[in-house]
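To: structure subgroup
Subject: Chain for Friday's discussion

All,

I'm putting the inputs and outputs inline so they're searchable in the archive.
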Amino acid sequence: MTLIIRDVLVNPPTWFASFRDLTLYCNVFFHDDVVIESEEADIYYRWIKPRGGMDFVQDFVRPGSEDGIRLDVELQYPRTVITHRIAPENVHQLIAQIRSLRRVA
């Protein structure tokens, strides 16, 4: 399964440590391929690579080019978890929502 994270969710107000926790969990325990959906991959790569954000992220993809479970700020595709940030107070809830969508897929 692929977890597609919208690029804006890498930026503040997202806590970068929580982003890493989420990608680690989904990659290690769900065996998901984690990708970031972006038109501006170079900019986001330069932001997250030095912070260790690519450790559990496989690649960048163009919007709409991959099928999978999405983490986004708005509903544009089916199987989307909506959030405005990834932070300590919502990581467990996001993981639970991703887990439930995996059962449906």
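Points worth raising on Friday:
DSSP finds three helices and five strands in the chain.
Residues 91-104 form the longest helix (14 residues).

D.
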